[in-house]
Amino acid sequence: MSIRFKAHSSRQQRKKILQFVKQVNNDFVLDLIKEEINENNKEENEEKDNDIDNVLDTLDNLNLKE
Question: What's the maximum distance between 2 C-alpha atoms anywhere in the chain?
Answer without folding.
Answer: 87
